[in-house]
Amino acid sequence: MATSEIPTTALPGDPTGAAPAPAPRMRRMSTGLLLVYVAILAVNSGGNGILLPNIVAGIDEAGKIGNLAIVTTVAFIANIFAQPIAGALSDSTRSRFGRRTPWMVGGALLTSGFLVGLPMAQSVLTVALVWLVVQVGVNALQAAATAIVPDRYPAARRGGVSAMIGVGITIGNAVGVAVAGSTATQGSLPYVVLAGLVLVVVGVFVLVNRDEPSTHLPRERTGAREFLRGFWVSPRQHPDFAWAFASRFLMVIGFYGAQTYGLYILRDYIGLGDEESNSFAATMGVVLLVGVLVSASGSGWLSDRVGRRKPFIVWSSVVMAVALAVPLVMPTTTGILVYAFLLGLGFGTYISIDLALMTEVLPARPGSSSAGRDLAILGLATTLPQAMSPSIAAGLVTLTGGYPVLFVSGIVFVMLGAIAIRPVKAVR
User: Fold this and answer.
1) pLDDT value at residue 11
2) Where's it found, cell-wise (predicted)?
């Protein structure tokens, strides 16, 4: 079947009758989603990896590890509630701008506005509160953007768009670290640049890839109890959903454990100075990006081609485990660069397959359109470990008195993630 002849039937479980977009529009949307995720991850990686650690260290150098854990744990609140609620509300949004666009635009405005105000914070509490609001905006934006995939792409094409989003995630990680690392000493400049990136990318996306009006769709009237009940997905009734959630949770916490304290690892474990570590962190981001591009560029396409997802997830976990072992035996700048490249290879394969797999385990909910909510619930398997990693890592470092434990625990988590994906039956 030619790509231009993809059937335009409604997606399973979607009573709205939404049809997959024509192939040319899907290609354009895929590029746009790549850029949206570049912007999202640039904010998170630049903020978590460079800007927040510098702000927190500037407030109290001696208490930086514990204070950084406090800041990121407060954001944990936003990560728990914001994305699922925004996803559910976008499912039920009825407007001439569609279901997803209002939440993408609103999230972008909230993210950018408070990000620019972040360097004005003068206490750990204020930093935590401002960063919490930034995360609310980021999660609203991400929930709406992710729901576009099951809205507009047939299952056979989701490996390709998943790979594009995966590349966007990695480019965003590199862009955020590069922008923040190279301009960290230039006042508000990194915050303004990242805020501007979000506004421009999201603005162009919603204008070029216009959402269909949703005013004609039936309105789902539910009370507060029914609305809240919709966030519970029974593991007994939907075991594939539960195993996919567990696998993603473990893989992400394994990846981000050492990444969260990357700047401090460069300073206190590798032995670099403050200015040198900021610059080297940007170099690490570029090396990791190269690794991701090498693996992600073909993994999603190949997964669609062979019709299999799980073997790619298992392979990615093995490569990441090897990467995490490198700094243990080679605690040098060279070892860190090897670690970054191999980690990129493994994570590039994982993120190019992950979203496609997740869209294929969504629970069928007859009579309701819940892709935004269900994907956002799965999104918690990404945001929760990211939010929890600093606290877990801080406890491990404090308990053992060093950073090597972060690499060891990362190996354990990514391998457990590979094991957790094996019981999924709906996906090969």
Assistant:
1) 40
2) Cell membrane
Which top CATH class is 22-210+235-421?
Answer: mainly alpha
For residue 39, which of 207, 270, 194 has the smallest C-alpha distance?
194
pLDDT tens track for 244-255? 888 889 988 888
In the chain, where the domains are located: 22-210+235-421
Q: pLDDT tens, 283-314?
A: 887 888 788 888 877 777 777 777 778 888 88
| Mean pLDDT calculated for residue range 368-385 | 71
